[in-house]
Specification:
Pfam families: Rv2175c_C, Rv2175c_wHTH. With 124 residues, the protein is α+β, with helices and mostly antiparallel strands. The chain contains six helices and five strands. α1 crosses α2 and α3 runs parallel beside α6. The chain is globular and about 35 Å long.
């Protein structure tokens, strides 16, 4: 279900995040309390998945004391397309040489609109 619209030639599997942050670590980076981080996850502004029994957030999604600008919209689009949180993380970190890199990496740069377009197309 998590195939992108365009089919890149290298589909060797998800690369995965460079690292993971615990929710207290996210709170520290965003300079908010951990309760606010829990609310952000509940409201779909941020995503956390269990790793080693602890909910964690991919490091790249939290930058410069903020969540990546387009992330909440991408999360909404993918959830509307029927993706669960594990599938969303898999989609965000699926290597795609047409971006280049991964959708997560592209969200932090000038390819964010393309990532959003691809996520929108998954709902149809």
């Amino acid at each position: 279900m998590s195939e992108p619209i365009s089919a890149p030639t290298d589909r060797s599997g998800p690369a995965g995040p460079a690292g993971w942050l615990t929710l207290p670590d996210v709170a520290e980076r965003l300079e908010v309390n951990v309760t606010r981080v829990h609310r952000m996850i509940r409201e779909g502004q941020l995503i956390a998945v269990p790793r080693d029994g602890v909910r964690r957030v991919p490091t790249e999604l939290v930058a410069n004391h903020t969540v990546l600008k387009h992330l909440p919209g991408i999360l909404t689009l993918l959830r509307d397309a029927g993706y669960d949180d594990e599938e969303i993380v898999g989609w965000l970190y699926q290597p795609d040489e047409t971006l280049p890199g991964t959708p997560a990496a592209a969200l932090g740069g000038d390819r964010a609109r393309e990532v959003k377009r691809r996520a929108q197309a998954l709902g149809f």
